[in-house]
Design goal:
alpha+beta; Fructose-1,6-Bisphosphatase, Chain A, domain 1; D-Maltodextrin-Binding Protein, domain 2; 2 domains; eight-stranded mixed β-sheet; 7 helices; 30% helix
């Protein structure tokens, strides 16, 4: 928040995406805290990669999810933190300071916002569903625009609440699905455990449970297969 809406220094990474001084400062601080408290743990994070890939326990971090929103003064950005042990996600946190919101989940312990336990919705028909996404242009770039349009046409309402917030809204039951085609593991690890602990489902577009990156569909579970059919059948 020290740099939010205060013109932080912005650089471009090799993939032409942006990174601000806040992104790097957050990641470095988290790495330092983890190294101090859990020296045997590894860290995989967006800005400085995977420095210790052989540890049984690994933290997966996105210092600012929605950096481009952050740069433009849009308050919908968050720090994503997940703990993986022996290939199993145990903890996920999504913290959105400008929105004064934080969501967390513990494997087997549910998904929460503060003291409020979260549950996905019980809507069973696509015609009644509200779905979220990042942008149609991303689906066009991935060659999935026809599938995207098929999903949107079949649902009641759609909104471009991209990045972490789409997953948070599915976890809260405010919508039935969030889907996007361009992702990395640090984008997905924390959302996956949150969605699952709220009773939902998160897979790639092939229907395989993963947080390795690529693409993802998170849903209340009841509409998952129907959305995949629309997305892949168009």
């Amino acid at each position: 928040m020290r740099y939010f809406r205060r013109q932080p220094r912005v650089d471009r990474k090799p993939d032409r995406s942006f990174v601000t001084q806040a992104d790097t400062a957050i990641e470095l601080e988290l790495r330092e805290r983890i190294t101090t408290k859990y020296p045997a743990h590894g860290v995989l994070a967006e800005e400085f990669g995977d420095r210790a890939s052989n540890q049984e326990a690994r933290w997966i971090i996105d210092p600012i999810d929605a950096t481009h929103s952050y740069m433009r003064g849009v308050p919908a950005f968050a720090t994503l933190i997940a703990l993986e042990r022996a290939g199993v996600l145990e903890v996920g946190v999504m913290s959105a300071p400008a929105m004064h919101e934080r969501w967390h989940a513990i494997r087997g312990g549910g998904a929460w916002s503060g003291k409020r336990r979260l549950h996905v919705s019980k809507i069973e028909q696509l015609k009644d569903a509200q779905v979220f996404y990042a942008s149609r242009s991303a689906f066009t770039a991935a060659g999935k625009e026809r599938g995207f349009d098929a999903v949107i046409r079949a649902t009641w309402r759609d909104r471009g609440f991209g990045d972490f917030w789409g997953y948070a809204l599915v976890t809260e039951g405010a919508g039935e699905a969030m889907f996007e085609p361009e992702l990395y593991s640090w984008d997905l690890a924390a959302p996956l455990i949150l969605v699952e602990e709220a009773g939902g489902r998160l897979t790639d577009f092939k229907g395989e449970r993963t947080y390795a990156g690529g693409n993802a569909l998170a849903s209340n579970g009841l509409l998952h297969d129907a959305i995949l059919e629309k997305l892949n059948g168009a």
